[in-house]
Amino acid sequence: MYAIGAPEGLELTLTEGLVSSLREFDGSQYIQTSAGISQGSSGGGLFDVEGRLIGITAFFVGEGPNLNFALPAAWIVELERGSRARTVDSGQDGAEARWLQRVSEARAKKDWPNVVSLSQQWVRVMPRNARAWQELGDAYSATNRPRRAIPAYQQALRYDGESFDAWHNLGWTYLALNQYDRAIEAIQEALRVKPGHARATYNLGAAYHGQGQRGKVQEVHGQLRKLDPALAAQFAKRYVKP
Fold first, then answer.
1. By the 8 A CB rule, do 42 and 5 touch?
2. pTM attached to this predicted model
């Protein structure tokens, strides 16, 4: 085992020793070695006989020959990976928030052509962003283009299969196109993500009504009476026959 450092400014000073143990110090584990570490050597490398980096020299205690300590090099790798991941995640989160704000502002003004345009730009810039695809699907739905909304929602679900809004809005879009089988499948997935959601349950009942499944419609009505009596009354007026 070899330690390379620069004690007292003497660069590339090489000392030889053995690994004595792994020791816990201040809640962390360090490599204890007999390879000398002097003042100014911290931050150097601890290498094995084949030149592989084993640790980063950290500190020594007293004058004892074996009281030299190094941080395991594997920890440095993990720390670097974690730092990179946090940096990437932070950057993506910030970009998503900025795009979402722009889309939300256009939606608040009911500027639907701009909502569509911004959502299209967003998915080009961040093609793997589930929220971007969902917003594009919502924009197409709001501008009465359900057949273009469907592939957008499907892309959103490709990148986030647990998105309630994407599943529910996909189901609602299928419902608008009278594709009841697909509507039921999508809304059931939405209810898997959020069991007992009243509006999703209402739309599921509407799809069952489109299929002519009176028993299922009655079942949904019973669920809605527990979840949201006012919504249940609307459902009954539209779909439940006396």
1. yes
2. 0.62
